[in-house]
Write a structure and sequence with these properties.
Layout: E1 16-17, H1 27-33, H2 43-60, E2 66-72, H3 74-85, E3 91-95, H4 99-110, E4 114-118, H5 128-138, E5 142-146, E6 148-149, E7 154-155, H6 159-168, E8 172-176, E9 195-197, E10 209-215, H7 217-224, H8 237-244, H9 256-272, H10 274-295, E11 310-314, H11 321-332, E12 334-335, E13 337-338, E14 347-351, H12 359-375, H13 382-392
Parallel strand pairs: 1-12, 3-4, 3-5, 5-8, 8-9
Antiparallel strand pairs: 2-10, 6-7, 9-10, 11-14, 13-14
């Protein structure tokens, strides 16, 4: 006999989310998610799809016709990009300077591609000279890079330089903008990026479930002239074209509620203004950075490639990074994260994304972190940190 389960009413704790995502969701987005469902082919939903596409183009800074939310999390839009662009026998160049370049490599390999790498240490961006050298050595068909590396808190500068190297070599460029879209300056068209994908639960402050993707005509030409079908039916863009393109025919049932949520999250982006939103992330995260530095802590990324949406702070000697994370969660209902891979144990990762990029959140975080570090007996100047943050705010 399978017993009847005794499960109580859903009551998750009320956290403040300052980790690498998800970020705090705006109340308007939560309200949008509680509105009634319509069918995925309902004329009213077709209008909503068009609006979401228009809002996505605004946010990506692109005129690309082919701009859609992919059903699934950021990894789904990532796999749609890589799995459609890379054909068996193609070579894809990927970076080794963080966790998500490795994920790109796994996806390219599963798509039947040959993976080659351009190296940089974890915690540093790619050097255009190294990218050029890799192109000379391997002549890849596709070049992927991570614009905002969430594992290291590094922003990839000089994107137009990278895309021009790739285009001089007839390769297509795929950008991971999961932790930059809607939070950090990114311009798909002006920077000549062929394909960019993102996720909703980082700087867009929307629950995971429908993930932005944009492709220009050159990329879509390649996708539509493949000799072999992509290995995934679900993420085959030539089939998704039937639903998101002119025809609006059934492919799979869109996650209606997530599309509502994304629409509202993107409406908030447009209301604020994309450039104003980039500026807000920068100024709020600067206050966080000023505070931790004045406490006597060190940021892992130098100013030139500091990523405002994801701040990596070095764990001081003698402090247990995990104990601080636990203390913040238990005492303050506040989420931050530890380092990954090569940086495990060395850094904390503090997100400053979307609705979490607010003065209120940063003040709260600084107070809580100061307390946690005092508790750990770290030799930090909490007063100076709090003063620097409040001055900056
Ligand atoms: C979070 C993240 C992803 C993956 O997104 P999921 O929503 O977790 O599937 C990919 N790339 C980067 C840079 C990310 O931060």
């Amino acid at each position: 006999m399978v017993e009847k389960p005794d499960v109580g009413e859903l009551a998750p704790p009320n956290r403040t989310l300052m980790g690498p995502g998800p970020s705090d969701v705006h109340p308007r987005v939560l309200r949008a998610m509680s509105t009634p469902l319509v069918g995925h082919l309902d004329p009213s939903f077709i209008d909503i799809m068009n609006e979401v596409q228009e809002l996505l183009r605004y946010t990506f800074r692109t005129d690309n016709q082919w701009t859609i939310p992919v059903s699934g999390t950021g990894s789904a839009s990532m796999e749609a990009a890589v799995g459609n662009l890379v054909e068996p026998g193609d070579t894809m160049l990927v970076p080794t300077n963080g966790y998500f370049g490795d994920r790109m490599a796994s996806m390219a390999e599963r798509a039947g591609g040959e993976v080659v790498t351009v190296d940089a240490p974890w915690g540093e961006p790619l050097d255009p000279v190294a990218v050029e050298t890799a192109f000379d050595e391997y002549s890849p068909d596709v070049f992927g890079f991570v614009h905002a590396e969430t594992s290291t808190g590094v922003l990839q500068p000089s994107v137009p330089e990278l895309t021009s190297i790739a285009h001089e070599n007839d390769a297509l460029v795929v950008a991971d903008t999961v932790t930059s879209l809607g939070g950090v300056e990114f311009r798909a068209d002006e920077w000549d990026v062929d394909v960019a994908y993102s996720g909703p639960q980082k700087c867009l402050s929307c629950p995971p479930g429908a993930s932005p993707l944009t492709l220009n005509d050159a990329a879509m030409d390649k996708v539509l002239s493949r000799e072999t079908q992509p290995r995934s039916w679900y993420l085959d863009l030539s089939l998704l074209e039937g639903y998101w393109g002119e025809e609006r025919a059934y492919h799979h049932t869109a996650p209606i509620t997530n599309v509502y949520a994304l629409r509202e999250a993107l409406r908030l982006v447009a209301e604020e203004g994309i450039e104003e939103r980039w500026a807000r992330h920068r100024s709020i995260a600067s206050a966080l950075k000023a505070g931790v530095e004045s406490m006597g802590l060190e940021m892992n990324a130098p100013e030139e490639y500091w990523l405002p949406s994801l701040n990596t702070v070095r764990v001081p000697d003698g402090v247990d990074d995990g104990a601080v994370i636990e203390y913040l969660l238990e005492e303050y209902d506040l989420e931050i994260a530890s380092g990954l891979g090569a940086l495990a144990g060395d850094i904390w990762r503090i997100g400053c994304m979307g609705h979490s990029a607010r003065a209120k959140n940063v003040s709260y975080l600084m107070t809580a972190l100061g307390d946690a570090l005092t508790e750990q007996g770290a030799g930090v100047d909490v007063e100076a940190g709090l003063a620097a943050t409040s001055d900056a705010l």
